[in-house]
Amino acid sequence: MDISSYTRKEVGALGEDMACEYLRRHGFTICDRNFVKKTGELDIIAQEGNTLHFVEVKTVLADDFPLAENKGEDAYDPSLNLHEAKVRKVARTGEWYVLEKGWAGEWQVDGCLVWLRRRDGIARVNYLPQIV
């Protein structure tokens, strides 16, 4: 399935779907998605044990997956969009979520980087726990 014609919104939604699937396969339960407050949006809220994880997903379309040892100029790193101001917004919105849901356990902010290959839609996911 060629996804090169997808809009940014469609790419982002597909990336979030792939991140959810990755988290499920690694023992997380998906509690909520796209929770919006005036402070921002939480892409994915997942639970593992007694901890809530507010997962910020960054997705990029790529012709090929970047190699760890070869980060050339054309290999865009989606983690560049996980800057301090964005992470702070996620944490503030997470505080709203915890209060609204009456969550009494631990919580943390995580990141999830998703590369989607244009020609076939195959994903590479890199989960980044506790980015705060």
How is this fold's topology laid out?
Layout: H1 8-25, E1 29-37, E2 40-48, E3 51-62, H2 84-101, E4 106-117, E5 123-128
GO molecular function: nucleic acid binding
Pfam families: UPF0102
Protein name: UPF0102 protein A3C19_02535
Outline: globular
Major sheet attributes: 5 strands, mixed
CATH class of the domain at 1-64 and 106-132: Alpha Beta
Q: Based on DSSP secondary structure assignment, what is the total number of beta strands? A: 5
Determine the mean pLDDT.
90
Q: Architecture of the domain at 1-64 and 106-132, CATH level 2?
A: 3-Layer(aba) Sandwich
What radius of gyration results from the CA coordinates?
Answer: 15 Å
β content, as a range? 35-45%
**SSE order, one letter for each helix or strand:** HEEEHEE
- Please work out how many helical segments DSSP would assign: 2
Provide the low-confidence segments as ranges.
none
The CATH topology annotation of the domain at 1-64 and 106-132 reads as Trna Endonuclease, Chain: A, domain 1
Secondary structure class reads alpha+beta
Distance between the termini: 36 Å
Specify the helix fraction band: 25-40%
